[in-house]
Write a structure and sequence with these properties.
By secondary structure, the protein is mainly alpha-helical. The chain is built from 24 helices and 6 strands. It has 3 domains: about 40 residues; about 220 residues, no CATH class; about 80 residues, no CATH class. Strand 5 and strand 6 form a beta hairpin.
Length: about 475
Amino acid sequence: MANNDVALMGHLMRRAGFGAQYHELEARAAVGYEETVEELLNPSEDTHGMDLDLAERYFIEWNHHVRCVPEYIAFRMVNSKSQLEEKMILFWHGILCHTDSKNQSQIASHAEWEMLRRCGLDSFKDLLIEISKDPAMVYFLDNCLSHKDAINENYGRELLELFSLGVGMDGEFNYTEDDVKECARAFTGWTLANGIPPQPYGRYTSTFVYNPDDHDDGEKTFLGHTGNFNGEDIIDILCKQPATARFISRHIYDFFVADEAQVPTWMETPPRDPETIKMLEDEYFRSDYNIRSMLRVLFNSDAFKNARFARIKGPVETVIGTLRLAGDWTTPKPGFENIFEEMKHMGQEILNPPSVEGWHTGRDWIDGGTLVRRINFIADYVGDAGYPGIQDMVQRLAAEGPTTTPEGLVEGCLRLLGHYELTDENHQMLVNHARNGGVSATDSPEFPKQVGEILQMIVATKEYLYA
């Protein structure tokens, strides 16, 4: 099989998942690129590949999701064979944001993530309806405090600004303050039922309820349409807007293809790649707002295939990708909460984005403190041949012959990390380091350490920040 096929598969799995070890990339490349895309887009029940019952017996606190939901989420990201499904939850979590620091109900947060897992690849219209009824979101954006005689605009505003239309497009505003108010009126009566008391069996999630007595059933005018609208009518109007197609397409491009400008600047900043955005917009309408169809078109496009190493990995991608590469945390064991803390200290805390706007991405992920933390975390893993994934790299390099050249050692490490590419200057620096130290025989006790040193130097480069 051609190295280029495996390199392309490495690119796909970094974007449509959290990366993979080299033997998985080879196996997927043998199956074929388009076939792998279809498997990722249509996960079956047997692709989850985890004994969650075992994990929940080990981590007792997971049973009723009283706490530690972020660790549960991270464990699934590491181990699920349905990698795109897990990646999509992270994608939507950065757009349809809520924070547990306000809600303080991780069981409600878990229910939302399960909804995102169920709906994240299907109709965007259905997803907007589901998130509008989601108890965690209803509480987070105060729609339970919105009444027909005293509307609360929070949810109506964020639905327009951050969940669908965006503030503006091509220098023009997408909605007015009157549209926000009319939208909020349409969602009155969308509230929460009284919670079940927490004792004696632990907490239960809240439930959505529609209260017709508290719904404003008067005539409303929204985005040029007039009628006796309810929340689902508003969402139907929103999904038909060209601005919504542009908004979702730019988010997909930013997350899966290449770093875009930050979301607050989109009104005045044109897309980085207008042709690809137009392709996604067209598929959005052709498929009746189907996210799976948009991703199928994207992943099979030349624009996606040629965009290798064009976006900076976020902290969750960095940590989960490193664990998958090293083969660590494939089974429950003590200390997993420390993994969650690593993401948090790198700037991305699951269930707690900094605001309803989500995280700023791209270069905003990197500063002096988080960069050092990121490099040290990865280097600690790739420099330890005790981890199964790193041990496999050493054995593969050793199997190529009794000796290897400095150039061969560097190229082999870059290949087994997923066909990473370095600048000529950095590449030569690593070759010189290997040459000056002398490359030991591949069956010597020193060889694993030398491999680990080269891997550590690679992950400390600027190029390894990118996916």
